[in-house]
Write a structure and sequence with these properties.
Layout (H helix, E strand, L loop, with lengths): L12 E2 L6 E2 L1 E2 L2 E2 L13 H14 L15 E3 L5 E2 L4 H16 L37 H12 L7 H8 L1 H32 L7 H52 L8 E2 L5 E2 L17 H5 L6 H9 L9 H4 L4 H20 L18 H10 L6 H5 L8 H26 L20 H34 L6 H21 L3 H31 L5 H23 L2
Antiparallel strand pairs: 1-2, 1-5, 3-4, 5-6, 7-8
Length: 566
């Protein structure tokens, strides 16, 4: 967001680094109001004056949006509106002040551009829960921010994943994987906290801890595996947005023209479902000639490209600040899915026996579920940004544990309730549970439309996080030029479109991306860094090595097992 786009009529701006208030005329810098430099200006004063001009110029090369030197506005009533809280502004200004006292070659106090701000992940609560006056968040906001960040596309695949693993095995996996991910996530927090304590004044991420203990390859590995999770999420988002957009327009068109065709393979007349599997329970569908609408509006042939028209302009913005305002939609969408599952389950009733509904308690396809859960419980690359703004850091372990319990309960509720009440063979359950409902189902239409709006608003934020990591690693800055960003986004979106056209199976995509990033970021890197920290303190024991070797072996086995299911 540019400087002039934030101005409103009758407002001036305050720069957090300077004391003077400088007006802008029609969004352009009026240099006549700046104090003129006397002939005896010192080099320091010249540099300071140049800094003022650079800061005030709307066309200047922009710093990352999360830096707190962005201007604050003055309302007509004289109230100052700050983007960041006062403590953040003070800390950042203090770092800048001390950095100017350091030699030019010493960048120890420079705030790194690639560190993401906490409010990109912090929950904007719809329940009126506020931060304190210093902008710090209490335990409730911290817990629900973690829960809100972890809740994602995996939730729609929970019933299918339980069907893949078997009911009893699925419930066990939900608990075991939650415990493993909780433990390694806490190790990530402790590693970063320890590193920041030994490097006062520096803001660290887990990738910095990997570089500290594992060298350059540890840094590269953490970035690559973190990006793999983000790319997997991006692909799943595109596939789901395509499906939701296709189904929503299909419903609206059919309702408007009174020509909505009945879906094939519908089971039941009261609370009907769709079963696409050839299991003897599905109805025989007749092939009908495709209409012009069907040719123009195809889920795999045309809609993924139509979606590009909506999404691509949004992902090229310099700053995703606007889209962070919609992070509370994640909470609302989960609540809506809760209501949706409860309503459908109440309509269906219990259908749970091994003869009529193909209920299994164990299946050798259980690695599908463990792969999905590796991504479903993955927050390791964002957790330090959330925890850094905690009022009482001593509560980190407790709050993280509560958050993981809430996530596990949420996944279990949606998966188990849908599974035991589904009124047909459990083999009919789709990897996107909404695909089990006809297009003319009003509640399903509302769910798809709501989730579509949520994903369209959050997709640019996901792309921004990937851009930060990629651009900073290759070019040393997060927005080298508009051309660089467009090329990167075009490559990423092309990958997503290819999957939406040729392989729109979100369950398989999630389990592979989850097991791949989990191999490193959930199981291996936190364990290795912890062992090296203990070795550095001469506190490494053989049983500790054995326990963490098992954890890493589980991650490797989980990844290899995905290929055995092809």
């Amino acid at each position: 967001m540019s400087l002039d786009s934030r101005l409103k009529p009758g407002k001036g701006i305050i720069n957090s680094d300077e004391e003077d208030i400088q007006p802008l005329v029609n969004g352009q810098l009026n240099e006549d109001v700046l104090p003129q430099a006397p002939a005896s200006y010192s080099k320091y004063e010249e540099r300071r004056r140049s800094s003022v001009l650079d800061t005030m110029d709307p066309n200047r090369k922009r710093k990352p949006f999360h830096h707190s030197n962005m201007p604050s506005s003055i309302t007509d009533s004289g109230k100052v509106e700050n983007i960041a809280d006062s403590e953040t502004v003070a800390n950042y200004s203090r770092l800048k002040y001390y950095s100017r006292l350091m030699p030019p070659a010493d960048d120890r106090l420079r705030v790194p551009d690639h560190v993401l701000p906490f409010y990109m992940f912090s929950l904007t609560s719809p329940f009126g829960i506020k931060k304190d006056e210093q902008g710090k968040q209490g335990s409730i906001v911290t817990i629900f921010s973690i829960w809100n960040t972890m809740m994602g596309t995996s939730l729609l695949s929970m019933p299918w994943a339980i069907q893949q693993s078997g009911f009893a095995c699925g419930v066990v996996l939900l608990i075991v994987m939650a415990g493993l991910a909780l433990y390694t996530c806490y190790r990530v927090i402790e590693a970063v906290r320890s590193l920041e304590q030994s490097n006062p004044g520096q803001i660290m991420e887990f990738s910095d801890a990997c570089r500290q203990y594992l060298g350059r390859w540890g840094l590269y590995g953490s970035v690559v595996f973190s990006l793999s999770a983000l790319i997997g999420a991006m692909i799943v988002y595109w596939v789901l947005m395509t499906n939701f957009l296709y189904s929503s327009v299909y419903f609206i068109y059919g309702d408007a023209t009174k020509s909505l065709p009945k879906d094939a393979d519908i089971i039941g007349s009261h609370c009907p479902i769709i079963c696409h599997k050839d299991n003897g329970n599905t109805s025989n569908s007749t092939d009908e000639p495709a209409t012009m609408f069907d040719k123009v509006w195809s889920e795999t042939d045309t809609v993924p490209l139509y979606l590009l028209i909506i999404i691509f302009p949004l992902i090229n913005f310099k700053s995703p600040t606007f889209f962070t305002k919609f992070n509370a939609l994640g909470t609302m969408s989960v609540l809506f899915l809760f209501v949706f599952v409860i309503v459908k389950a109440a309509c269906w009733g219990i259908h749970f026996n091994t003869v009529d509904y193909d209920v299994k308690y164990f299946s050798w396809h259980f690695p599908s579920f463990s792969g999905i859960l590796a991504l479903g419980y993955f927050i390791h690359n964002a957790v330090t940004s959330i925890m850094r703004n905690q009022v009482n850091p001593k509560n980190n372990k407790r709050d993280l544990t509560i958050a993981y319990i809430l996530v596990a309960v949420t996944y279990t509720f949606v998966g188990v309730v849908f599974y035991i009440t589904f009124p047909s063979s459990k083999n009919c359950i789709e990897d996107n549970l909404l695909k089990n409902f006809p297009h003319d189902d009003v509640l399903s239409f509302a769910a798809r439309l709501f989730l579509l709006f949520q994903m369209v608003s959050l997709f640019p934020l996901l792309m921004y996080i990937m851009r930060v990591q990629v651009m900073h690693q290759f070019f040393g800055e997060i927005y080298p030029s508009f051309k660089h960003v467009v090329v990167l986004n075009a490559i990423l979106v092309s990958i997503a479109i290819a999957f939406a056209v040729f392989f729109p199976s979100i369950g398989t995509i999630i389990r592979f991306s989850g097991s791949f990033c989990g191999l490193a970021y959930v199981f291996t890197l936190p364990s290795l860094v912890y062992l090296l920290r203990l070795k550095e303190k001469n506190a490494l024991k053989s049983y500790i090595i054995g326990v963490h070797a098992v954890v890493m072996a589980i991650g490797l086995a989980n990844f290899i097992a995905q290929f055995l299911l092809l």
